[in-house]
């Protein structure tokens, strides 16, 4: 029973986040925001939807068994949710599941964004590891862990390019020249 309650809570949480994202999207567009990465967004949504279907299927296959390390994984999951709230509140109206950028905007560098560039993607990656581990869903972990890294390899460069083009992103996070000669 725990598995269905847990998955239900996570799905409701995601739906609430989509509602917040939609409201933020409307506000951003009204302020003149430009959307980037529309082509990969549908694929990303599909990956996350199929993740839950795969997880439920594998949990049923495993007869709903929890990992023997479930308390540890549950604590990690709760910590990611605290981080998720921190991220959403730090970005406020600028938080979204899509890539919207306001021209001439100053990049937000508060909350976890003070410490590194893409904390939301780090948390999503951790969630896509911890949730399957909680239920010993190793096939889901492997398959969707790989798909998530693939979609992030597409998404992050698009987001960074957009931010560099029309905000002060490069000023805040300067590109390091790795192979520069001295």
TrEMBL record:
It is found in: Membrane. Keywords: Membrane, Transmembrane, Transmembrane helix. The chain crosses the membrane at residues 6-22, 43-61, 73-95, 115-135. It is a multi-pass membrane protein. Pfam families: ICMT. Gene3D superfamilies: 1.20.120.1630. InterPro entries: ICMT_MeTrfase, Metal_cation-efflux_comp. This is Isoprenylcysteine carboxylmethyltransferase family protein. It comes from Bacillus spongiae. The lineage of its organism: Bacteria, Bacillati, Bacillota, Bacilli, Bacillales.
């Amino acid at each position: 029973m725990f598995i269905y309650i847990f998955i239900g809570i996570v799905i409701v949480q995601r739906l609430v986040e989509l509602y917040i994202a939609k409201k933020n999207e409307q506000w951003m567009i009204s302020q003149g925001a430009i959307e980037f990465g529309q082509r990969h967004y549908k694929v990303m949504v599909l990956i996350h939807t199929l993740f839950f279907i795969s997880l439920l299927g594998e949990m049923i296959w495993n007869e709903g068994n929890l990992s023997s390390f479930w308390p540890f994984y549950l604590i990690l999951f709760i910590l990611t949710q605290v981080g998720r709230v921190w991220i959403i509140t730090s970005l406020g109206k600028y938080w979204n599941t899509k890539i919207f950028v306001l021209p001439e905007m100053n990049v937000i560098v508060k909350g976890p964004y003070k410490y590194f560039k893409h904390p939301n993607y780090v948390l999503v990656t951790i969630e896509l590891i911890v949730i399957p581990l909680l239920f010993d869903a190793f096939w889901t972990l492997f398959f969707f862990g790989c798909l998530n890294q693939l979609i992030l390899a597409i998404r992050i460069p698009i987001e960074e390019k957009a931010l560099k083009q029309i905000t002060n992103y490069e000023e805040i996070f300067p590109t390091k020249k790795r192979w520069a000669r001295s």
